[in-house]
Task: inverse folding
C-alpha cells in the first residue's frame, strides 16, 4: 500500500468518561478530553474562577467541576474555543449546523460598550452563533457570555412589521399607514411638545438621522442617556475610557468608582485581572463590593468616600499619588443619579488632585454599559437650549407638556411615566417601549445592518450586515429618512455613504474608524453637594440587560441558574 | 491598611446594593455540623494552603473517609475553592473521597501489597483469600496497594497502615483484632544512645564555627558521595549549586521511598534515625536553609511517630536552632518521590512533576532554591566527615568507590538491606551477602534498580553494580533495590506486574505515560506480545514523557524482549 495502513492499529476499547454538567452554556463530551488542562488554566488564570479542576490520577484523571454545578464566570464560553478536541462545546449550538453551511460575517458586539470584535455565523436568515475575533486592543481573543450566547434572542419577539394602535390595540399596518398616523398626530404640534429618547443599542447612523429630524421639527428635547447619567457632550475626555482597554496593562494602580466591571464589561474586568496577575498593581473600590476576581481594597460605598479620597484623607490617595500610571474608572452607577454631575466633578477633581492625568497619560475613565452611548454623546444627542433631559421628558409627558415621544429603541425607561403622550417606538424587539407605543416602526438589530458604534474608549467601529432584518423591518436610518419624507421635512441623504459623510460632518471622529484619538482634557462636572446614597451597579442581572438578551432563551436559563436562584453558582446566598 | 478580598460576586438586585456580600468560597452550602467537626479537628493549626494534605489526613484518620460535607467545610475553613480541595483529595490513594449519595467505605481497610516481591511470595492468593473471607459484612474492605517497603518479609499486608509481615489470612485477622495503633517504634539507637556515642558533635562543631561549610562540602565531594535516592547526582556538587542561589533557601528530605523493592531508607530510619537527622541538619547548615521539610511516605506511620518524638528531642537540645524541621506526610502516591512532584505535594497540591528547567535547586519549594536529598544520602554525611572521605571512598570493587545499601528481596536465602561496596556484582552479592539462592531456586535474572531499572539475566550477573555501569545494557541501579528472580519465575508476568505498577502510579499529566502505561499493560495482558507495536509505544513513552516515571516505565518490557526471549514463546 503506497500511503500506509488503512486501518487504525488501535484495536482496544477506548476509555469512556462520564460527561459533566457545566450549566446552560457549555456542553461536555468528556470522553474526548485529552487532559491538556487549557480549560482549567483559562478558568483559573484568565476568568479567575477556581471551579474547574482535574481530579483523580493517571488514567482515572477527569476534568470537571467535580461537584456538579455550572461554571460561575461571565467568560465561560471561551473554554469552548480553547478546548482543542471538542470535549467542551456550545450547548445552545449543539447539532444546530455544520460550519460549512454558515456564512461568516466579521462584526462588532453591542451587548456592552466594549465593542468586542466578533464573527457572526448565520445560515439563511438566522444567526446561529457568535464567536470572538482577535483584537489585541479590545477583547484579545475572548468575548463575554452574553455577547456569545444572546444571539438566540435575535429570533424571538421580533418586530417584523409596522403597527398602529387603533381602539387601544396595536394592529398590523403598512409602512405608509404608520407614517400617515404619525404625520396626522404631529400636525400642528409645536416643536417643544415633541421629544426623543435614544436607547442603548442605537447605531450612530440612526442617531444622526433622528437628531436631524428633531432639529427639522424644531424639537429641543433629545436625550441619548436613557439611564439619566449626568454626562455632557463635551469635552470628549469627560465621557471616554481615556486610558484605553489595552492601556490598563500599563497602569499600576486603579480606583473603581460605582462600578462592577465584572458584570458591566467582563472584558475590561479580564484586562484588569490580567494586569493584576502581573503584580505591582493595586486596586481600590468605592461602590458595590463584589468578587472582581482580583484583589481590591474596599474603600467605601458612596460619594463621601470619593470626596475624602480626593481631599487626600485616605491612605489610598497616597497610593494613587505615588503611582506612576494610576487610573480611575467611573461607572454609570456613580453618574446615573441625581447628584451625578457633582460626582463627576468630584471624580475629575480626584483625577487632577492625585495626578491621574498628566503628560502622556490620561487615567480618567468612564465605563459605559450601552453600546450606543458614546456615539450619542459624540453626535450631541443631548437636550438643546431649553431642552429637557430624559427625566424632564417623562415629567413633561406625565404632566401633559409633551405630546409626542419618539423612542429610538429606548426600553430602559419607566414607560408608565409616558402619560398620555403619543409614543412612536422604532426598534427591533417587542420589549417595554413597543408595548407602550402608539406606532411601531420595525428596525434592524446589530447583525442586520451596516452600522457604526463607538465603544467606551471612543473607538469608532462598524458592524456588518450578516442577515436581513425579518419581514418588513428596515435599516434604521432609512426608516427615519422615509419618515422625514412623509412629514415633509426630507433629510438630505439617500445612501449610507451620505449618512456617513453627515456623521463625519457632525463629529470628525467618525471619519477615523478603528482607532482611538486621544481626547483633549477640559473642565467638566459640577461642584456641589453629593448625597450619602451608596453607589450601585446599573447591572442587576448580567445576562439580561437589553431587548435582545431579554428575549434570549439561553440568557433566561443563565438567569435561572446563576442569578434568580438563591443558591446559584457563587454561593452568595445570604 | 485593611485589605478585603472580594470573595463573592454580588448577586443582589438593585436596592440591596450596599450589603456586604458573603465572602466565601463558591460552591455548595457548608453544613454547620461538618464545619464544626472540621474546625475542632484543625484546632489551632494554621489554615495555610500548603497544609491541605495534612488537614485532609486529620479528617481521613478520624472518619475513615472524606465526605462531601467535610470537604466543603474544609474548603470553607481554608478559604480554598472546593475544586482545589477535590483535586488534591482525589489524587492520593490514601484518601477515600465519598460523594453525596455514595456509601462510605468500611471502617477497616486491609491493603495487600501486589508489587513484585510480594507477588513472588503469593500476594495474589492472599488477596483472593482475604477478599472472599471479608466479602460479607461491612466492617472490612480489602484493596490492593503498591510496595510498602518491607519486601524482605513478603508478602506484606497492612491493616489501616499497620503492616503485617509474611502475611497470612490468620495473621491479618489477628492484626484486625489487635489494637489499631501498631506497636510504638523504639529505634535501636535513640537520642541518648546516639549522643553517648559522640553524636551531634559534628553538627555542633559546624554551628559553633569549628568546621567550615567548605570543609564539609569538600569531605562529601572527596568521598564521592552520590544521591542514593536513585539519580546518583554528586552530593557535594548539589550543595554548591544550591548555595550559589539567592537566599532564602530551603531544604527537603525525600523519605518517600516508593520504588518497589526499596526499603533501605526505612531500615536506617528505624535503626539509627539520628545519624540521618544529624546529616540533615548539617546539610541544612551548609546550604543555610532555614526550613527543612521531611516528606515521609504514609506507609511508615510508626516511623512518623518516632521521628516526631526524636525531632522534639533535638529541638529541645537546641540542635535545630537555625533550622525549623517540618515533618510532612505523604498520602499514597509513588510519583511524589520524584523531587519536583514531592515539592508540589509539600505545597499541598497534586503531585505533578514539574518541567525542567528551572531545576529545583533554582526554583523549588515555594519558589525558593531548594536542596532535595534522599534519607540515605544524608545518613552517610556524619561518617564521611568524621572518618574521612578516604574511608568511604576506600570501599568499592572494580574501581568503583563507596558504600551502597542494597535492598535485597526475592529468591535468596537471606534477604534484607545489605551494605556492600559499590561495584559488587550480583553473583557476589547473592553469595557473599545473602546466603545464596533460596532452596530449590536457581538464579535466572534480577532487577538491579527496582521497578524502573530494567531486568538483567543471570548471564549478566557479573556486571559491576553502580551508577553508570548498567546503562549500556539498558538498565540502571537507581535506588539499589534488587529483586532476585529464579527459574520458577515467568518474566512476562514480572514485566506485567511492573508495568501495572506504573499504570497505577502515573500522575496522568502527560499522555505518553498516562495512556502508554495503560495500553502497554493491556497489550501485554493479552497473551502474545507484539514486539513491533510494544517497542513503538515504549519509544514514545521514553522519548516524550515529562519525568522519570514515564521515561523508565518501559524498561522492564524492553529487557524481556532483549534478555528473556525464551519466556516469550
Ligand atoms: C518516578 C521517580 C520516583 C522517585 N522516587 C524517589 C523516592 O522514593 N525516594 C527518593 O529519595 N528519591 C526518589 N526519586 C529521585 C528524586 O527525584 C531525587 O533525585 C532524589 O530525591 C534526590 O536526592 P539524592 O540526590 O539524595 O538522591 C525518584 C525519581 C523519580 C523520577
Ligand atoms: S480544554 Fe478540552 S481537552 Fe483540554 S482539558 Fe479541558 S476539556 Fe479536556
Ligand atoms: S511521565 Fe508519567 S508520572 Fe511523569 S509527569 Fe508524565 S504522566 Fe506524570
Result:
Amino acid at each position: 500500500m503506497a500511503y500506509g495502513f488503512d486501518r487504525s492499529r488501535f484495536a482496544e476499547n477506548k476509555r469512556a468518561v462520564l460527561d459533566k454538567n457545566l450549566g446552560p452554556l457549555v456542553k461536555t463530551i468528556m470522553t474526548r478530553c485529552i487532559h491538556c488542562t487549557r480549560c482549567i488554566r483559562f478558568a483559573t488564570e484568565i476568568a479567575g474562577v477556581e471551579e474547574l479542576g482535574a481530579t483523580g490520577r493517571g488514567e482515572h484523571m477527569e476534568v470537571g467541576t467535580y461537584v456538579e454545578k455550572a461554571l460561575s464566570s461571565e467568560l465561560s464560553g471561551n473554554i469552548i474555543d480553547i478546548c482543542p478536541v471538542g470535549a467542551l462545546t456550545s450547548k445552545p449550538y449543539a447539532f444546530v449546523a455544520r460550519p460549512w453551511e454558515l456564512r461568516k460575517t466579521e462584526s462588532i458586539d453591542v451587548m456592552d460598550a466594549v465593542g468586542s470584535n466578533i464573527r457572526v455565523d448565520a445560515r439563511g436568515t438566522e444567526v446561529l452563533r457568535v464567536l470572538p475575533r482577535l483584537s489585541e486592543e479590545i477583547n484579545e481573543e475572548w468575548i463575554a457570555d452574553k455577547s456569545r450566547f444572546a444571539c438566540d434572542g435575535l429570533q424571538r419577539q421580533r418586530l417584523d412589521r409596522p403597527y398602529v394602535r387603533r381602539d387601544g390595540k396595536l394592529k398590523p399596518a403598512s409602512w405608509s399607514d404608520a407614517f400617515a398616523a404619525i404625520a396626522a398626530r404631529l400636525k400642528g404640534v409645536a416643536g417643544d411638545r415633541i421629544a426623543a429618547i435614544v436607547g442603548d443599542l442605537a447605531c450612530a447612523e440612526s442617531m444622526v438621522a433622528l437628531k436631524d429630524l428633531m432639529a427639522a421639527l424644531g424639537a429641543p428635547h433629545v436625550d441619548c442617556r436613557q439611564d439619566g447619567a449626568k454626562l455632557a457632550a463635551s469635552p470628549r475626555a469627560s465621557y471616554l475610557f481615556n486610558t484605553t482597554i489595552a492601556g490598563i496593562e500599563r497602569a499600576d494602580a486603579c480606583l473603581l468608582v460605582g462600578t462592577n466591571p465584572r458584570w458591566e464589561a467582563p472584558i475590561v474586568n479580564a484586562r484588569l485581572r490580567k494586569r493584576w496577575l502581573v503584580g505591582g498593581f493595586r486596586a481600590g473600590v468605592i461602590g458595590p463590593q463584589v468578587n472582581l476576581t482580583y484583589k481590591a481594597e474596599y474603600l467605601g460605598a458612596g460619594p463621601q468616600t470619593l470626596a475624602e479620597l480626593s481631599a487626600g484623607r485616605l491612605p489610598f490617595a497616597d497610593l494613587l499619588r505615588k503611582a506612576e500610571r494610576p487610573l480611575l474608572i467611573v461607572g454609570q452607577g456613580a453618574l446615573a443619579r441625581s447628584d451625578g454631575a457633582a460626582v463627576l466633578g468630584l471624580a475629575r477633581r480626584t483625577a487632577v488632585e492625585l495626578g491621574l492625568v498628566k503628560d502622556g497619560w490620561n487615567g480618567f475613565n468612564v465605563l459605559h454599559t450601552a453600546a450606543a452611548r458614546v456615539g450619542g454623546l459624540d453626535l450631541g444627542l443631548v437636550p438643546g437650549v431649553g431642552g429637557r433631559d430624559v427625566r424632564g421628558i417623562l415629567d413633561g409627558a406625565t404632566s401633559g407638556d409633551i405630546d409626542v415621544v419618539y423612542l429610538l429603541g429606548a426600553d430602559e425607561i419607566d414607560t408608565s411615566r409616558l402619560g398620555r403622550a403619543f409614543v412612536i417606538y422604532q426598534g427591533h424587539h417587542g420589549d417595554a417601549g413597543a408595548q407602550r407605543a402608539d406606532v411601531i416602526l420595525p428596525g434592524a438589530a446589530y447583525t442586520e445592518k451596516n452600522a457604526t458604534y463607538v465603544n467606551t474608549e471612543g473607538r469608532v467601529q462598524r458592524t456588518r450586515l450578516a442577515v436581513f432584518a425579518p419581514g418588513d423591518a428596515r435599516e434604521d436610518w432609512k426608516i427615519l429618512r422615509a419618515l422625514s419624507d412623509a412629514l415633509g421635512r426630507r433629510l438630505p441623504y439617500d445612501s449610507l455613504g451620505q449618512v456617513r459623510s453627515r456623521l463625519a460632518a457632525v463629529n470628525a471622529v467618525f471619519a477615523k474608524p478603528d482607532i482611538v484619538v486621544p481626547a483633549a482634557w477640559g473642565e467638566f462636572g459640577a461642584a456641589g453637594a453629593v448625597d450619602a446614597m451608596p453607589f450601585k451597579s446599573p447591572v442587576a442581572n448580567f445576562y439580561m440587560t437589553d431587548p435582545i438578551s431579554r428575549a434570549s432563551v439561553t440568557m433566561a436559563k443563565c438567569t435561572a441558574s446563576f442569578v434568580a436562584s438563591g443558591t446559584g453558582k457563587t454561593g452568595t446566598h445570604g | 491598611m485593611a485589605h478585603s478580598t472580594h470573595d463573592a460576586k454580588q448577586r443582589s438586585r438593585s436596592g440591596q446594593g450596599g450589603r456586604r456580600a458573603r465572602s466565601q468560597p463558591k460552591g455548595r452550602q457548608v453544613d454547620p455540623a461538618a464545619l464544626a467537626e472540621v474546625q475542632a479537628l484543625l484546632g489551632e493549626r494554621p489554615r495555610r494552603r500548603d497544609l491541605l494534605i495534612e488537614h485532609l489526613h486529620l479528617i481521613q484518620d478520624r472518619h475513615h473517609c472524606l465526605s462531601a460535607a467535610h470537604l466543603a467545610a474544609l474548603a470553607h475553613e481554608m478559604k480554598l475553592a472546593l475544586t482545589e480541595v477535590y483535586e488534591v483529595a482525589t489524587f492520593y490513594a490514601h484518601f477515600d473521597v465519598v460523594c453525596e449519595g455514595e456509601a462510605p467505605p468500611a471502617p477497616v481497610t486491609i491493603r495487600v501489597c501486589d508489587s513484585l516481591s510480594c507477588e513472588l511470595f503469593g500476594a495474589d492468593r492472599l488477596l483472593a483469600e482475604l477478599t472472599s473471607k471479608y466479602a460479607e459484612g461491612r466492617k472490612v474492605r480489602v484493596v490492593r496497594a503498591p510496595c510498602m517497603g518491607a519486601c524482605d518479609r513478603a508478602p506484606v499486608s497492612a491493616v489501616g497502615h499497620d503492616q503485617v509481615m509474611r502475611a497470612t489470612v490468620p495473621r491479618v485477622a489477628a492484626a484486625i483484632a489487635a489494637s489499631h495503633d501498631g506497636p510504638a517504634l523504639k529505634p535501636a539507637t535513640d537520642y541518648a544512645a546516639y549522643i553517648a556515642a559522640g553524636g551531634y558533635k559534628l553538627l555542633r562543631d559546624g554551628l559553633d564555627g569549628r568546621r567550615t561549610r567548605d570543609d564539609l562540602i569538600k569531605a562529601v565531594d572527596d568521598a564521592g558521595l552520590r544521591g542514593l535516592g536513585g539519580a546518583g547526582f554528586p552530593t557535594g556538587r548539589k550543595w554548591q549549586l544550591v548555595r550559589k542561589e539567592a537566599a532564602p533557601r530551603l531544604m527537603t528530605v525525600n523519605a518517600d521511598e516508593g520504588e518497589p523493592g526499596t526499603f533501605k531508607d526505612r531500615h536506617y530510619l528505624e535503626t539509627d534515625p539520628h545519624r540521618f537527622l544529624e546529616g540533615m541538619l548539617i546539610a541544612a547548615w551548609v546550604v543555610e536553609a532555614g526550613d527543612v521539610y521531611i516528606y515521609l511516605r504514609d506507609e511508615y506511620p510508626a516511623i512518623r511517630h518516632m521521628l516526631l518524638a526524636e525531632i522534639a528531642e533535638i529541638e529541645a537540645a537546641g540542635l535545630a536552632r537555625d533550622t525549623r524541621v517540618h515533618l510532612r506526610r505523604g498520602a499514597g502516591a509513588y510519583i511524589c518521590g520524584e523531587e519536583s512532584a514531592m515539592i508540589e505535594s509539600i505545597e499541598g497540591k497534586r503531585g505533578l512533576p514539574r518541567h525542567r528547567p528551572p531545576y529545583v535547586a533554582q526554583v523549588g519549594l515555594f519558589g525558593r532554591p531548594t536542596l532535595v536529598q534522599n534519607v540515605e544520602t544524608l545518613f552517610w554525611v556524619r561518617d564521611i566527615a568524621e572518618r574521612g572521605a578516604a574511608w568511604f571512598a576506600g570501599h568499592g570493587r572494580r574501581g568503583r568507590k563507596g558504600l551502597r545499601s542494597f535492598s535485597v528481596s526475592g529468591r535468596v536465602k537471606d534477604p534484607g538491606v545489605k551494605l556492600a561496596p559499590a561495584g559488587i556484582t550480583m553473583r557476589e552479592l547473592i553469595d557473599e551477602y545473602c546466603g545464596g539462592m533460596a532452596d530449590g531456586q536457581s538464579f535466572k535474572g534480577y532487577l538491579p534498580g527496582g521497578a524502573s531499572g530494567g531486568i538483567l539475566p543471570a548471564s549478566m550477573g557479573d556486571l559491576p553494580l553502580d551508577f553508570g555501569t548498567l546503562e549500556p545494557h539498558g538498565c540502571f541501579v537507581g535506588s539499589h533495590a534488587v529483586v532476585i528472580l529464579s527459574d520458577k519465575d515467568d518474566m512476562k508476568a514480572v514485566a506485567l506486574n511492573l508495568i501495572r505498577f506504573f499504570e497505577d502510579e502515573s500522575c496522568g499529566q502527560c499522555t505518553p505515560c498516562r495512556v502508554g502505561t495503560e495500553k502497554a499493560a493491556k497489550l501485554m495482558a493479552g497473551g502474545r506480545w507484539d514486539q513491533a507495536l510494544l517497542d513503538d509505544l515504549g519509544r514514545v513513552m521514553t522519548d516524550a514523557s515529562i519525568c522519570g516515571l514515564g521515561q523508565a516505565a518501559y524498561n522492564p518490557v524492553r529487557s524481556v524482549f532483549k534478555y528473556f526471549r525464551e519466556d516469550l514463546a
About this structure: The pocket of flavin mononucleotide (ligand 1) is lined by residues B 227-231, 233, 254, 256-259, 335, 337-339, 372-374, 377, 547-549 (CB under 6 Å). Residues 154 and 548 of chain A are 6 Å apart (CA to CA). Residues 26-88 of chain A form a domain with the Alpha-Beta Plaits fold (CATH 3.30.70.20). Chain A has a mean pLDDT of 94.
